[in-house]
């Protein structure tokens, strides 16, 4: 499965006139047992995505290696645990959460990579900051030497392909607008695309795709 996913990523990159090595594949291992994750790492997976702090707490002691990304929503009271367990938090969506992570990272003497999660679908209950909230949120992250802002993340609408594409294009626009305002920012990471839409995401400029089912198979 891993080889097939790598091939599909490479094919999508070529269609878009891009190099396959521009795209990082994060293997989403939520609900997967440790032995499946170990097998994925042995097959060549380097980056692992987890939705919940609690699940990572249970699994990580049994797993050697991998760069861990938190891709699910994070509550402020779990910021300390997230700093301990993860290399990157992709779901920073408010100045208050950014502040909590910065305090915990400083307390642990550890610099954290973070991405801002953007709600590009416009659906109210969808996680992520609204596009007009991004300047304030970016400023809050930049205040702390303990947080390293690498880019933006979004979960596209589950509607039709036109709407999915619009979400991906919206993330591009958000990135361009932020960089235009703050020229010292390096927002080279665009984390967008999952098992059902990662090829479209790559064609739309994604540099990081989060893939679970296509790597690990359907959940039993």
Automatic annotation (TrEMBL):
Q: Which UniProt keywords apply?
A: Pyridoxal phosphate
Is Phosphoprotein one of the keywords?
A: no
Which GO terms label this protein's molecular function in UniProt? Answer: pyridoxal phosphate binding
InterPro entries this protein is in? Ala_racemase_N, PLP-binding_barrel, PyrdxlP_homeostasis
SUPFAM superfamilies listed in its UniProt record: PLP-binding barrel
One matching Pfam family is Ala_racemase_N
* Nuclease in keyword set: no
What Gene3D superfamilies does the record tag this protein with?
Alanine racemase (3.20.20.10)
| UniProt name for this protein | Alanine racemase N-terminal domain-containing protein
What is the scientific name of the source organism?
marine metagenome
Alanine racemase N-terminal domain: from which residue to which, for each copy? 13-219
Upper lineage ranks?
unclassified sequences, metagenomes, ecological metagenomes
